[in-house]
Design brief:
374 residues, mainly alpha, 16 helices, globular
């Protein structure tokens, strides 16, 4: 006669095993990320604390290594970066940014038009017969794979439309990866850094001020999470820190080691998206997205030149603000390379808000007459 332990025992054992495995994967990933960042610091690459982990973890993930990202760490990283960026918005800088409202509005129109054009191109390339044909590809898939910004929100919108969400998510992930790698390395090669016309308010770390800043920015993050708003950890901390700095208060700077650690966990969170299955996911689709991303970077460079001429701003700063990259990644690039952090942040925040509000209405408007959105 055999004795079998009760089912809760097996459930508990399975849970513990899963937790242990997940913890080991996260620990392994952090060790590799720190080593990669240290190596990039030694090699003097741009954004070593983000690009080092991003490249190392993405390569290992695609090779099938046991990598993992811990969501609370990523949230804290976004919280720190958002708070650090808000410190640049001193009263004079806020006045400068508000005076450029028309340039930001123009950037919104440009970004929306560029996204629509990219989606239309993807549909023409992959919908018709030939070697590039992807079975079952819908207009919704191509459209929601193309807006510049709001990757997770675009994937949810695509899901509601019955689109191929794996193609949508892969498109946004690859676009952000390419922009995050190409622009910083290009800027460093061209010597485009250290041109910032603005500086953060506080420069000295004050323990009590830092604690107060942490409490208020944390409360803002919590509120945005409860309201289920987009990107709550980054935008919540940014809004609170910006409000404090814009009012003329200089509580404390944020220690460099904190922003470095934040960049590291953000780099990890980007890198783990590129799994082994990602490599085998419609290679023709990924090749088209990569080609389209390169084209968008080139077009944005030309658009930035026009805006820079009209506003007398630095071209490198405007390109970061108008580039087809993610808000956190481009803001970090601006911070590390000292390229107009408030302007870059303001350009991306306004663009993100417009994309989230207008993506679905534009999609419905673009549908052929008498045809339901698909």
């Amino acid at each position: 006669m055999y004795f079998y332990p009760p089912m809760p025992y097996y459930k508990t054992l399975t849970t513990l095993t899963t937790l242990t495995t997940h913890t080991a994967r996260i620990a392994f990933t952090l060790i590799v990320a720190v080593a990669a960042a240290a190596l990039c610091v030694q090699w003097r690459t741009p954004l070593p604390w983000m690009i080092g982990p991003l490249v190392a973890i993405s390569v290992l993930s695609m090779l099938g290594a046991p990598t993992g990202s811990y969501t609370p760490l990523r949230n804290v990283g976004q919280w720190v970066i958002g708070a650090a960026l808000g410190l640049y918005f001193t009263p004079p800088v806020v006045a400068l940014v508000l005076g450029l409202w028309w340039a930001m509005a123009l950037n919104v129109v440009w970004a929306l038009a560029l996204g629509v054009a990219f989606g239309s191109w993807l549909y023409r390339v992959h919908r018709g017969p030939g070697v590039f044909h992807i079975t079952g590809l819908s207009r919704a898939t191509c459209y929601f794979a193309s807006p510049i910004g709001g990757a997770s929100e675009m994937t949810l919108m695509a899901e509601r439309r019955g689109a191929q969400t794996e193609l949508v998510a892969s498109s946004h992930s690859l676009r952000v990866l390419l922009v995050t790698l190409i622009i910083p390395f290009s800027f460093q090669f061209a010597g485009l850094h250290g041109l910032d016309i603005t500086a953060p308010g506080p420069r000295v770390v004050n323990a009590s001020g830092l604690a107060a800043l942490g409490v208020l920015t944390g409360a803002a993050c919590w509120l945005m999470v409860k309201l289920k708003l987009t990107n709550p950890w980054f935008l919540g901390a940014l809004a609170a820190s910006l409000a404090i700095t814009a009012s003329g208060q200089t509580w404390s700077a944020i220690p460099t080691w904190m922003t470095n650690a934040a960049q590291l966990v953000i780099g990890i969170s980007l890198g783990v998206r590129f799994t082994r299955s990602f490599v085998h996911l419609a290679p023709r689709w990924l090749a088209s997205v990569a080609l389209g991303t390169l084209a968008m970077i080139g077009l944005c460079a030309g658009f930035a030149a026009v805006v820079a001429w009209a506003t007398e701003l630095r071209w490198a700063t405007v390109l970061l603000g108008t580039s087809p990259g993610g808000i956190a990644e481009m803001a970090i690039t601006a911070k590390v390379l000292q390229l107009g952090v408030p302007l870059v942040t303001a350009f991306h925040v306004t663009r993100l808000a417009a994309v989230l509000l207008l993506a679905e209405p534009i999609y419905r408007w673009l549908q052929p007459k008498g045809r339901q959105p698909a």
